[in-house]
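User: Hi! I'm working on a homework problem where we have to compare a predicted structure to a textbook description. Could you give me the structure for the chain below?
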Amino acid sequence: MDTKKLMDIALELSGLDKVPYDSGVQVEGKNLKKILIGVDMETPELLLAKELGYDCVISHHPKAESSTVNFSKVMDVQIDTMVSFGVPINKAQKMLKKKQASVELSGHVGNYDRHASAARLLNMPYMNIHLPADIITEAIVQEHLDTAFENNEKKTLGDVLDVLNEMDAYKDALAGPVIRVGSKTDYAGKIAVLMAGGTNGGSDVFKSYFEAGVGTIICMHVPEDVKKAVMEQNIGNVIVAGHMASDSIGLNVIIDAWKKEGLEVTKMSGIL
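Assistant: Happy to help. Predicted structure tokens:
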């Protein structure tokens, strides 16, 4: 097994035909047998992997080079998701631009070679897989909810929490699903699970979903300013499913596929 094959498996499982901007192989490796993977794998984890005899370190979140500098570009995939929920494509693009510009500004000034340089010095194969895992998570959670509420037009946010907590990743999580905007007795309406696309699109994006007929957005995390804006808009609900738990869903699908190829995979740093 090599780093390219590891990436190819993740791409195939997520339906992608090329490596997205937020993912990549920073240090290539061949003849890999033992993998150490986590949500955030940085220099301390690289040192740990070297000490314990692992062949490759994989991070979920981008940590190096183009996957951080070009991170904002991957957010374009959110446009297709917005359109699928009824947002006009021109509006979707414009509503995303504010958050995209903020993310680009942050990525441009970051120390993008910090962890990759450590991996090179340690001669440790190092890569990250972000969007593919998030696409898998988004699809699994959306299907789970759509199936559960297929004939229920009066589902409440409390009902949605109950159904989310039927999933192993959420019911066992310390930071599991929680209502951030709305209350348990509020009707959920149409549900949009938004977990793939780099990061949260911001209050403008949320508002465009609500104006297109979505009643409840389910996401991995929501910043305070977005939560406040949605509360002031008073037209939709937000449930935060939980960051580490949500990331774990897609990552575990990929990990299981790697194990079927004969790899020994050890999970740490946030993967449940």
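For your comparison, note the following. The first strand starts at residue 24 and ends at 27. The chain has two domains: 3-130+247-267, 135-242. Good luck with the assignment!
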